[in-house]
Task: structure prediction
Amino acid sequence: MKTCFLLTVEGDTLTRGDLLRHLPAGVVLQELSTPKVGAAQKAELQFDAAQRCVHKGSSQITLTHAEYRLLCLLAAQPGRVWGKEQLYRQLWQQQGGSSARAIWNLVYRLRRKIEDDPAAPYYLRTAGGGYQLVLKP
Result:
């Protein structure tokens, strides 16, 4: 099994360094382990840093800056549970009284865009008082 993180910009694959420039300060990138896929199959989520969007299958999903940063942050460590306050500090570099609500709203909007069924999310899950990104095997 080969480890990789797939990002595409107009058909070109970005390097690990390119990805790191788009992540919030203090976030460490861990490589995603992906299984081999047949020639007809595509990665489920592909990140396009130049357009600040995600491709899911053949569909392009346009994201706001905050949604894209949240998704990149979660994708840097898939499976890790991030608390709402941790996410807020990473995304906005500050602490705030309404941080939980701001993150909830951001996750709500992101789920409506990337999930097949936002009411029963697969990718962006609630776990242990926070959120985690789960990638399909």
